[in-house]
Amino acid sequence: MSRISFELKDDLEASPSDGILTACLEGSAASISPAYNAWKAEHPCPIQQFDSLMRQAAGKLVTVFLDYDGTLTPIVSNPEAATMSESTRGVVRRLAELFPSAIVSGRSRLKVQSFVQLAELFYAGSHGMDITGPAPGATAGAATWEDQVAFQPAAAFQPVMATLCEELEEAVRPFPGAVVENNTFCLSVHFRNCDAHSFPPILGLVEAAVASRSDQLRMTRGRKVLEIRPKLEWDKGTALIHLLGCMELADAEQVFALYIGDDRTDEDAFKVLAERGLGCGILVSTHAKPTAASWSLHSPSDVVAFLEKLVTWGRSGANAWQSKRSCKGWHIAARPTAAAAMPGLPPRTPTAPTPVARTPTQG
Ligand SMILES: O=P(O)(O)OC[C@H]1O[C@H](O[C@H]2O[C@H](CO)[C@@H](O)[C@H](O)[C@H]2O)[C@H](O)[C@@H](O)[C@@H]1O
């Protein structure tokens, strides 16, 4: 298969039924095929089989990890326009009142915080390389951005990313539609709005840029985007484990983590949950594809419907341990309990939390 046809096949997300609660609850013309039905049987809808999913959480504390683009917001052609709707913000706010909740995104942390605008959440920006959460002592339900403290395992890579961003902006100028996004500790080179024939040269440029710093950088791929990342054994999976450590919830006997995401980079998180028996992954996809997630939702609007159900379940007191803990609020621990035990991670630098920049929208 040629590179171009691979890219087109890889980008089947733009289903005409996206944004409508369809396939998961009723099935849609776009999705009903024997292959899709067989895949759905193996990756059922957690709205339809909610009780079965939540039985796995019995007696445990539910935690929720949410990818941003393609999960909380539909994919749009302009990355700057992928803002979150008020209704989605509302359900995420209600969710965070009940369960420790985090946003895990390839975006810069400041960007994703400015889209989400909820200071009470944990965040992992730059593919998990910029982790923040409410500081100890922050008041539950009244958190401010000043309360957020951070762990940044790739801080040393910010200068190389800034330099490379300028270089690549210049290099992709001849290709209309190509956009370079600086995500602080990583970069995204978008080709969604480019002519299909521009893809091979853009890929060549990015590969060459990464090859010239191959001791420092690596390239991964997302939805119509090439991502340049530090050569660190750090991804959304390790970030998730670190976040659970920050929440002092690293014990599989105590925690049931749900991770909802739509992209290849989310697979690292799905895998780590399955391997460690810490919870399960929910893939957002309009089509069948290989995944380490056990469940699937069709679209961001299905994600909202699922989160609403989770909130109703949490409010019903279905999990007694849950309600006892949630009144305390959730804070970043001064000494995370999980990450240090993980092989392949860089040394855990901060013994005390570090204050972080405020989000651009907070004045
Ligand atoms: O981890 P995520 O939160 O899913 O971030 C991954 C990338 O998401 C953004 O790009 C994607 O969404 C854009 C807006 O819908 C879309 O235009 C683009 O084609 C998608 O790849 C973000 O702009 C990237 O920086 C992230 O790496």
From TrEMBL:
The cofactors named for this UniProt entry are:
a divalent metal cation
Biased composition (Pro residues) is annotated at 344-353
- A Pfam cross-reference name: Trehalose_PPase
Compositional bias of kind Low complexity: 354-363
Which reaction does this chain catalyze?
A: alpha,alpha-trehalose 6-phosphate + H2O = alpha,alpha-trehalose + phosphate
UniProt GO MF annotations: trehalose-phosphatase activity
| Catalytic activity, EC | 3.1.3.12
Coiled-coil-forming residues are: none
Per the record, the pathway is: Glycan biosynthesis; trehalose biosynthesis
Q: Which UniProt keywords apply?
A: Hydrolase
Q: Look up the record and give one Gene Ontology term from the biological process aspect.
A: trehalose biosynthetic process
Region Disordered, annotated ranges? 340-363
> Record's SUPFAM superfamilies?
HAD-like
Which family is annotated? Belongs to the trehalose phosphatase family.
What role does this protein play?
A: Removes the phosphate from trehalose 6-phosphate to produce free trehalose.
Q: What is this protein called?
A: Trehalose 6-phosphate phosphatase
